[in-house]
Design brief:
Pfam families: rve_3. The chain is mostly helical. It has one domain. It has 2 helices and no strands. The longest helix is centred in the middle third of the chain and has 17 residues. The chain starts with 13 loop residues before the first helix and ends with a helix. The model has no long low-confidence stretch (mean pLDDT 97).
């Protein structure tokens, strides 16, 4: 998260950071494929 989102952005305030992190977590759980999960997303593993 730090290297893929936080360090790449220049948030103006806490509200902007909160919104950015919400977008990142949605991406991370539903779109980003994980090698340790057999190239599946966490949502695919959890929900089937």
């Amino acid at each position: 998260m730090k290297y893929e989102e936080i360090y790449l952005r220049d948030y103006a305030d806490g509200a902007e950071a909160w919104a950015g992190l919400q977008r990142y977590f949605l991406f991370y759980n539903t779109e980003r494929r994980h090698q340790s999960l057999g190239r599946r997303t966490p949502a695919e593993v959890h929900f089937g």
